[in-house]
Amino acid sequence: MTETVPTGSPAARTADRDGRIELAPEAFPTDSPFANEDLRPVPVAERTWTTYNFAALWISMAHCIPSWTLASGLVALGMDWKQAVFTIALANVIVLLPMLATGHAGPKYGIPFPVLARASFGLRGANVPALIRAAVACGWFGIQTWIGGSGIFALGSKLTGGEWEKAGQIAGNPWPLWLCFVLFWAVQIAIIHRGMNFLRHFENWAAPFVIVGAFVLLIWIAVEANGFGELLSQPSKLGWGADFWPVFFPSLMGMIGFWATLSLNIPDFTRFGASQRAQTWGQSLGLPTTMTLFAILAVLVTSGSEVVYGEAIWDPVALAAKTDNAFGLLFALVTVLIATVSVNIAANVVSPAYDLANLAPKFINFRTGALITGVIGVLIFPWELISTPEFYIFTWLGVVGGLLGTVAGILIADYWIVRRTVLHLADLYTPGGRYWYTAGWNWRALVAFAVGGVLAVGGSYSTVNADGVTSGPFPADGMIPFLRPLADYGWAVGLATSLLLYAALMLPRERTAS
């Protein structure tokens, strides 16, 4: 289906047979308080990203230290490597579906996520999902920056003979670690300051470089170990019975939560797509295959490390630091740097930069939003968010996934069920237009979000270990005890509830309006 505004209209025109729509230059309301150049629909002539660009984007984003260590977190919870890889693969196939659904609006209309959210939440109400997404991205930016800085510190310490580790302490950590963290933060802000075109070129060459680095690590450990060791033959501590499923489902939701952020703001990238085919095939080839391959590589390399060093070393930085080869250390350092920068900028800076610009378009542009993201990412103390596997997978990823799944359900229902992919671009920027609702707020979206969010995360709970210590900020029996059983399925519960409720509230209104 294409835009209902007639071709050749001054408001909009169908640009090509792929159904891509753009605003005529004179139709964009530049004087609107809800418009600026960064939020403006991308002209069709500038929508040039190909299948390779999207695949490279996902390859470079998936190849990062947290992705590598996802399998280790699941093994630490009692799974064997086959169960861990299966969980990761299934989660990424599932999350690909809403990714493609929300990504469709990007190539067709050239709009970013916060502008797409205006169709369902209203011009002002869109700040609710935008700021939630921005807050999550700030958290992820801080986590990735801390991990990247820690990696640089570990390898740098090895190159200096361990002198860095003996340096004076600041807040419980050696001061060179804090220096690496700050420098790594500054490098990322400098790159994003160059803009989206520079980011596309960076991702294009970063993707193959990181793949090569991962296979170099695999070949090295295989040679050292003369095989891949005993980890591959270790049985699951959970089996496939009653002990497995209570761990599997919350873990699956946590793995989905790992990329649930991008399932919302993927239009921030697909708005530059040359066609629907490019974004569909690029994402399908880039996301589930890469994450599964990376999980398998992590398991193989870790198993080899068990033979060589007598322990399973899941952290690729710690493993690389075991070598005494200076060239190998430098290669590992560069690989870690490129891998972490590529995922952090693309996944955790682009979106909040747009989201914060949406909050005050006349005062915050893309670059200012990126700087604010960087500052908040430090202030949240990211090192605390990844302190334990339980806290990381169940608390952080689980709660984040539940909330973001709720927003995804509303976006998908609005775009595909209520509007059948038809949007009126000028009204997305115009007070008093069809997406103004009541003073810029659509109460139906807010109700769907509130109900879905409570059901998804209201029962969030913390696990209790054998010593009776609670690992997380929630009560052991859940914030809302009778909702505790739903917490293990937070993403799915939030998405399904908000999708159905929003559609039920909006369809009668649209029939009346038409």
Automatic annotation (TrEMBL):
Domain of life, per lineage: Bacteria
Membrane topology: Multi-pass membrane protein
Transmembrane segments: 55-77, 84-103, 175-193, 205-223, 243-264, 285-309, 329-351, 363-381, 393-418, 439-461, 489-507
Pfam families: Transp_cyt_pur (PF02133)
Localization: Membrane
GO cellular component, one term: plasma membrane
Keywords tagged on the record: Membrane, Transmembrane, Transmembrane helix
InterPro entries linked: NCS1 (IPR012681), Pur-cyt_permease (IPR001248), Uracil/uridine/allantoin_perm (IPR045225)
Location (main, coarse): membrane
GO MF annotation, one: nucleobase transmembrane transporter activity
Sequence similarity: Belongs to the purine-cytosine permease (2.A.39) family.
PANTHER family: NCS1 FAMILY PURINE/PYRIMIDINE TRANSPORTER, PURINE-URACIL PERMEASE NCS1
Name the record gives this protein: NCS1 family nucleobase:cation symporter-1
